[in-house]
Amino acid sequence: MQHAAVNSAVLTGATASAVSVEVHVSNGLPGFTIVGLPDAAVRESRDRVRAAILSSGLPWPLRRTVVNLAPSGVRKGGAGLDLPIAVGLLVAAGELSPARTEGLSFCGELGLNGSLRHVPGMIALADAAAPLGMVVPLCDVREAALVRGAAVRGAATLGELVAVLRGQANWPTIPRSRGTVHAPDEPNLSDVRGQALGRRAVEVAAAGRHHLLMVGPPGSGKTMLAERLAGLLPPLTPAEALTVTRIHSAAGCAVPDGELLERPPFRAPHHQASIVSLVGGGSWSLRPGEVSLATNGTLFLDELGEFPVAALEALRQPLEEGVIRVSRAGGTVTFPAAFLLVAAMNPCPCGEGVYEGACGCSVAARARYRRRISAPLLDRFDLVVPLSRPDPDELLSDEPGEPSEVVARRVAAARAAGTGHRAGPELTEDAAALLASKLRAGGLSARGLHKVTRVARTVAALAGADVASFAHASEALSLRAGRAVVVS
Amino acid sequence: MSAESAPDLPQEAYAVALASMPSMGPARLRTLLAADPPARAWERANEGSRASVRDVARAWQRQTSLGIRVLLAGQPGYPARLVDDPQAPALLFCLGDPTALAGAPTAALVGTRAPTRYGIGVAAQFGADLSGAGVSVVSGLALGIDGAAHEGACGAGAPPVAVVAGGLDHVYPRRHERLWERVASSGVIVSESPAGVPTEKWRFPVRNRLLAALSDVVVVVESRHQGGSRHTVDAAMDRGVPVGAVPGSIRSATSEGTNALLADGAFPVCSCGDILIALALVGASVAVSSQFARGQSSSAASAPVPAQDRRVYDALSADPSPLDELVRVTGLDLAELCGGLERLAQAGLARDAGGWWERA
Q: Measured between CA atoms, how close is B111 to chain A, in angstroms?
């Protein structure tokens, strides 16, 4: 046997595509060539594969060897192709029977000692390998089995795998779960003293999935509130959890062993993060960015005004469509990016702008700072709340605030009843008249009216009311009053 | 090169041409025009150059085509207030009705370009009240206090007077384009700079000196520690023009300058009546009506507070408070509080100041 073809899969973004690894061994000067647009990691696999085969006590064919990765036009990356190349080589060299590898897809990185190592993105790879059976490193079996069930097999070393494929041994048993990665305790809202408006804003944002912008001086608790918002969101549904786990796995983030992520993700990229790290991409292997890692969860942008303008403008598509399309010369990848955007910013460079007379910024400096947040981006925020520093008495009091558990129950009940986005309570006549008067007075744009209406319905749903009353509409107006501070 | 070759050009034309020469400041212009009549001064200044009478005609044409009136010192129409001024401008450019500079008593309302709502409100109210009492409001048409004073004064009665730094062919600051037109149509905009001269930094203190010279009394509404209002105040004190200041919070940086002025002996301005009294003391003929007596504002008496919103109204003060504080003081739930505030706002009893609330 001089030729062999083995199935595998490679990751592109958060999805994977099937790849056929063809190996041809022929007479000629000994050599080893990989063709079919391999990236650096795949080209280096030559040395890993050789060492692993020799370490496993198997012969290395001293002949001319060509490995082709089909389809040849698609760029392939990652070390997951080590295992299929090694298996294909052994089949082509006559060490393994081709019948035993038929109907299987292989994925795994090889160590020099022949061990099989973890590959990121196992959920997506398992999807792409269907309907074939799948052979993966033993440590990845539970993750791949999340989507493929019983069709996933694993081995700890190349030698073990060869023994199984030769019929000399049985498939090794899948190890028990190492247990869920213990999620760190989410911070609790009971730590927040006072801040009635800020607490209310995160509650409404969590209940109605309203994007939230907090404007306030340093020390007004913006970051504290944002971190506690994540704990108010209900647990992920199974479908959401699979999407989230798939993206985290593809990005190489830690995922619980053989289980889905249950809590909505909370991502807080620093304002110096590059645009690519935010929206996803990279020149060859397209990696999901922070907006995709935050999908079905919260994306928190602290110091919104310090982010590069181009990065902020790149957020507009995901905010609008719930996905982000990353285009490169090699093709376009669509990542899910349906997140709740929570942002915080100072009202001006010195941060004291909400306190009249305390701000030392020049008119030009304030205008420059505000120009960084474009009007279309600002329009995406349903809630823009002005925060002020808490009252010292409240701050020092021993009385804890309302705990997250209580607020989360209200949020869950409101979501079940229907919030601003779908089938929430309708506005009463005087509430509608209040908003109409604001529209006529010019204090509200047509889009603003639509948003306030939605927020008012969420507020009413949180209160368990059948209709959104005058008071609910008034509160909705107050929850966007921070626009006056940000728009000059 | 001869002045006699174009007898149809007025004296002002030569003065304008002289003022339009590069590196010509107010002081140099004053010296040159004090020594010679304009035509002669222009000739001497251009000796050896290739400038011709055609250039004079062109500069003159430029002013008149823009509707700019030129007032030459010593000629009829030149404001009486400036005649004895030690640094009187030799040449004044006006957009609008120059007679607004004579007649009515004048009061300058000046202050910081980045005021608080308090300052804006006070400036606008004084602007309207003074104008209604027949006093011309003089200001610099700058952002902040100046603009607010003019906003209040336009169309309220006496013609407003704006003193600007650059040429009258371009609006500065650009944001005040509409206000500029309103002042020009209801009063007058004055400048020492001929058309085409950009608004350079050094011209602002010079402008402030002219502003003080044109005013019977100067009132600083809000100013920071080392604000530009200081130039106006210094110029006013040099000329014996009374200076008043509006007291502000000791915690507000925008009131540091005005509070310091009060400590230095400026008269406190707590109502429009205080300004009118100061004007009467300097001899301007104003009638201090009881409407502007101390402590009275011109705003209408407020409606009675509905019983259900009494608690909310009591928690409000004249200075804006954040909602968090109102929640704490009233003990109400946020929706109830906001509903009460909106009802009070509809009754004209409360005002939303960028998410913070105050009594109207």
A: 13
